[in-house]
Write a structure and sequence with these properties.
Layout (H helix, E strand, L loop, with lengths): L1 E2 L14 H8 L17 E2 L4 H18 L1 H4 L4 H21 L3 H34 L2 H11 L4 H19 L1 H15 L4 H19 L7 H8 L12 H16 L20 H21 L4 H21 L3 H13 L2 H7 L7 H6 L3 H20 L1 H13 L1 H11 L5 H11 L5 H13 L9 H9 L6 H5 L2 H18 L10
Parallel strand pairs: 1-2
Helix pairs in contact: 2-4, 4-5, 4-17, 5-12, 5-13, 5-17, 6-8, 7-8, 7-9, 7-11, 8-9, 8-22, 9-11, 10-20, 11-24, 12-13, 14-15, 17-20, 18-19, 18-20, 19-21, 20-21, 21-24
Length: 497
């Protein structure tokens, strides 16, 4: 690379404010997961004014993201604007240097990788929304309520189900479902709700760490080809340890009493079980296409969206006459509870489910990917890669990045690592997958599951309530890393520490 000389004066980093210099050191913790198409360009901008401006804009945007709850500002807005400014600055420099071609190519390559991941996530979100509309999750919640579990049994049941369901349904959806159960059963017992929610967050994040479908970060690692589908299961035992260590300690502080009787009657709508099966078939299509045919997983997912569309067509063409008759009987009797339980007879519409996807999350994902891609093209990720993975070593760097993900979203963390593509063994790629996945459990703001539960159980599950148990969760984090380093020691033999 050659350094730019004609665009602005050279920056003196020693003269920069301490906050900015500190954030520069933590930059790898401010990024997410894609292959290295956003590699450094032919012009080194790391010591230029333009580069400094771009870096400052990204830091400011991410500070706004971190203050989302307090500012009531959706997290996608600042990173979308920051991405546009960063790439505009890059384009300006390269046009001035008479080199517009490389910038356009780099932007398109980064955008293509984002598009694949976005379509993958969009299909997964659509299926989850479809199952929610068919009352699949409500029926599961109602079953647990009818069983009359004691507080301690409910603590273990919701945490275990969060661990088991999140590898398929993602950690955010799973955490919200389990939280709905504990807030309803433990109404008025804030101490139990806080402990149960912490357990759910830890369980959901740990469960999502050993599956490509459990978290956006694991999906990115899989799509980037760093870890094969079946290789994620090497993290199963470390993930179990990560969940069990804090769960065992916290369960000792849960009263073994029976809560007040709570019951709920929910019926799944027609086609609910078949949609679950179609989702599993979609996952199988994505895995088979990627493993056997070496095609991007998004192909199988988009094909699976076609499965759901055909099934939606079938539901529209064959009205549920039984449901219509039941609603008519309830209307004649004036039974409002029965009408609510039976739900709507409006035909199933796939595009309504697509519209209900988490668009703020998808747009935030775009903004972060393009911001980090732009900073990488300027050369910053190469500098950070040297500082972390060369000087600290891959093992300590990956453990540190996991801790950073408790403060900064793990999506930017993983994107930075995948963009830098440091020379690491297979065991180290599994390590960063584990630490980025479970590190967010250390704080309530460290993962999407924790942030969502603070909103759902407002005043009952709080930042400080979670923070009091962070040392115990940290023990689980350390134990899971130790188990991985011991259990999968053979996979670390290619490169250094």
């Amino acid at each position: 690379m050659r350094a730019v000389t004609s665009i602005g004066p050279t920056l003196d980093y020693a003269a920069m404010p301490k906050l900015i210099r500190t954030l520069l050191l933590l930059l790898p913790g401010l990024m997410t997961a894609l292959p290295a198409h956003a590699a450094a360009g032919p012009i080194d901008l790391t010591n230029s004014t333009v580069g400094g401006i771009a870096l400052t804009i990204f830091v400011l945007a991410y500070l706004l993201v971190m203050g989302e709850e307090r500012l009531n500002l959706r997290k996608s807005k600042p990173v979308l604007v920051a991405a546009g400014i960063i790439w505009a600055l890059i384009g300006w420099v390269y046009v001035a240097e008479g080199m517009p071609g490389p910038t356009e190519h780099a932007f398109r390559e980064t955008l293509l990788e984002f598009a694949e991941l976005m379509l993958f996530l969009l299909v997964a979100m659509t299926y989850i929304n479809a199952m929610e509309e068919r009352n699949v999750f409500d029926a599961l919640r109602a079953w647990m309520l009818r069983r009359g579990f004691r507080y301690r049994s409910l603590f273990w049941l919701t945490g275990t189900l969060a661990f088991l369901i999140s590898p398929i349904a993602d950690n955010l959806t799973t955490a919200l479902l389990m939280c709905a159960v504990v807030t309803k059963v433990g109404e008025g017992d804030n101490r139990f709700i806080n402990l149960a929610c912490i357990n759910i967050v830890v369980g959901a994040n740990a469960g999502g760490a050993f599956s490509p479908f459990g978290d956006i970060t694991t999906l990115m690692v899989w799509q980037a080809g760093m870890v094969k589908f079946y290789e994620f299961f090497a993290l199963l035992l470390p993930a179990i340890v990560n969940f069990l260590v804090p769960a065992v300690v916290m369960s000792l502080f849960v009263r073994n009493e029976a809560p007040s009787a709570v019951s709920e009657d929910v019926e799944m709508k027609r086609g609910a079980r078949r949609i679950v099966l179609l989702f599993l078939l979609t996952v199988a299509s994505a895995v088979a296409g990627h493993t056997l045919l070496h095609l991007p997983p998004v192909l199988g997912m988009m094909t699976g969206l076609g499965y759901l569309q055909f099934f939606g067509y079938y539901l529209r063409q064959t009205p549920d006459k039984k449901l219509i008759r039941a609603r008519l009987r309830a209307e004649r009797k004036g039974d409002r509870e029965a009408l609510q339980r039976l739900g709507s007879v409006v035909p199933f519409d796939v595009f309504n489910r697509v519209a209900r996807a988490e668009w703020d999350t998808l747009l935030f994902f775009y903004g972060v990917v393009m911001c980090v891609g732009g900073l990488g093209y300027m050369g910053y990720l190469g500098v950070m890669s040297t500082a972390l993975f060369t000087e600290l070593g891959a093992t300590y760097a990956n453990i540190l990045l996991g801790l950073i993900s408790a403060v900064v979203d793990n999506i930017p963390v993983m994107f930075a690592v995948l963009t830098m593509q440091p020379d690491m063994s297979h065991g180290h790629w599994l390590l960063i997958t584990l630490t980025a996945g479970v590190g967010g459990s250390l704080l309530s703001i460290g993962s999407a599951a924790g942030v969502a539960l603070m909103g759902q159980a407002r005043g009952q599950y709080t930042f400080m309530g979670h923070l009091r148990w962070s040392p115990i969760i940290l023990l689980g984090y350390i134990a899971s890393v130790a188990v991985h380093l011991t259990l999968n020691a053979d996979s670390f033999q290619v490169f250094g520490p």
